[in-house]
Amino acid sequence: MAEVRLESIARECRVQILRMLAHAGSGHPGGSLSVIDILTTLYFGRVRYDAKRPDWPDRDRVVLSKGHAVPALYAVLAKAGYFPERALITLRKLGSPLQGHPDRTALPGIEAATGSLGQGLSISLGLALGLRLAGSSARVYCVLGDGETQEGQVWEAAMSAPKLGQPDYALNNLVVILDYNKIQLDNFVKKVLDIEPVTAKWQSFGWPVIEIDGHDIAQITKALDQAEATTVGPTFIVAHTVKGKGVSFMENDPEWHGKAPKPGEAIKAIREVLGITEGAWEDYLKTDSATREIVTELSALEKK
Amino acid sequence: MPAKASRAAFGEALLDLGARDERIVTLDADLSKSTMTVNFAKRYPGRAFNLGIAESNMIGVAAGLALTGRIPFACSFACFIVGRFETIRISVAYTNANLKIVGTHSGIAIGEDGYSQMGIEDIACIRSLPNIGIVQPADELETKQAIAYAVEHQGPLYLRLTRQNLEPVCPPDYRFQYGRWLVLRKGHDVTLIGSGGTVFNCVEAAKRLEADGISAEVINAACIKPLDEELLVQSAGKTGHVVTAEDHAVAGGLGGAVAEFLTDVLPTPIKRLGVHGFGESGDAKGLYAKHGLDPAGIAAGVKKFLHR
Prior knowledge:
Structural class of chain A: alpha/beta
Number of helices of chain B: 13
CATH class of the largest domain in chain B: Alpha Beta
Strand order of the largest sheet of chain A: 1-2-3-5-4
Oligomer: heterodimer
Largest sheet of chain A: 5 strands, parallel
Largest sheet of chain B: 7 strands, mixed
Largest interface: A-B, 36 and 30 residues
Radius of gyration of chain B: 18 Å
CATH architecture of the largest domain in chain B: 3-Layer(aba) Sandwich
CATH superfamily of the largest domain in chain B: Thiamin diphosphate (ThDP)-binding fold, Pyr/PP domains
Number of strands of chain B: 14
Radius of gyration of chain A: 19 Å
Strand content of chain A: 5-15%
CATH class of chain A: Alpha Beta
Distance between the termini of chain A: 43 Å
Number of helices of chain A: 11
Structural class of chain B: alpha/beta
Strand order of the largest sheet of chain B: 3-2-4-5-7-6-12
CATH superfamily of chain A: Thiamin diphosphate (ThDP)-binding fold, Pyr/PP domains
Order of helices and strands of chain B: EHEHHEHEHHEHEHEEEEHEEHEHEHH
Number of domains of chain A: 1
Number of domains of chain B: 2
Order of helices and strands of chain A: HHEHHEHEHHEHEHHH
CATH topology of chain A: Rossmann fold
């Protein structure tokens, strides 16, 4: 089944996210782990791309507006063949194209420089409009953070998108997905500046809104199908997610928004992501050489 | 050629260029009647987008359009568009998106509307960003050539235009070259550099100075980033004194750029004439006189600087 394959890829990507963050010593695990099922479903179940031709004009575009979750995007891009997976451990290191936040000019496959929150949706509108003007059938997927929607520019874009290009170039090629993990840097979104009622807000701005569980690949797929069938304009998907999803000690804890796991913590997290008990771990590693290498590498890092 | 505002020349140029190049699109934030893209929108309705009073989104949409191969001109008043600096910093400069940011109504010369509508810090802001060039044409001829160049230029540009009419200063056979300045008048006592709305006043000031026995070399610096370093070194080396005159804050503008460059390669005494403090409502002539940017003020500034 397609979902089983995607779940397996997402699991591997979670491992890579934890691995690269531990090597970097800084970065954002919580939001990377909440968005990875969405990105996996996009890249391995939906998006048309050619890693050998990153500038292919008719490729679909994915804009990760919540740029701090870029470890998730790097994990997916590596798996998609844009660059070798071993490059992931250069994240945030001097001279690496894997910048702490996405740099379009540094790494083929990155569609927009994001990380300064609130800008990715506007770029996505421009991409979607440009593709329509060019007569391309390519689609644009923009992933927003929940805290990010506190930025004013998001609402300028939200107001504009359902009307932009109408009637000849309506942005029916644009899908926006909100990674609604309920936590931002300082605290729970509700406590900093509640963004509710999310669905009613976007609906009142003229968007059809679909609410899903952002970790359920079947639901993500179905929502993307529904969006693709919409011809009048863009679609907004509210993906309810869990910050730090898959790692017990990171889940739903604001502390893990922007703190990298230490190598030992990363090893424990990787074990949890793979669903292996502590007692079975040593035996498991004998059977999984790829994970064994990652763990060996992390153990060495810990001793440094 | 009669005097014409560079925003008007821009609107006319865009109409012509739009017929030749389908990639050109315009974006406005409810000021298309003032930025003069309104006629482009009438002639090419499918290529003109009014995003409403939402400049940050307009700049971002323009950047996205640029990434799909369009050549967007994103237009507003200089202060409003450059005021969305963070969006320009990331979505335009860092992205190296091939779009043209057009800031009209630059400077205190807009007059009566007062400070909130005056773009006088825009050059300082944009100058600090890698990748973006800054062009400020001085008359109709130069504006039309600069806009035609902007379409061919790969990468982002900031085009700084005026609301007020500009007297012709460039010779009829003039050809705009990116990164090149134009000597309008040869001289040997002082190098007097103007840009945009102050160039004509610099020429007039030089005539007054000549009557007082001071020979000023007048330069039209249409390109503020990059500077014409070769010409600047040559002229400053000859005269030994440099005065800049611009309708922009004295901090960080053309004068700042000239000073920074010469400090490194050819330390030269420099006087920067420009706007001090905030602008205010008033007639343009009166404001230029108050800030020493009219011909008499520039001439007086030069004389004081030379102790003559």
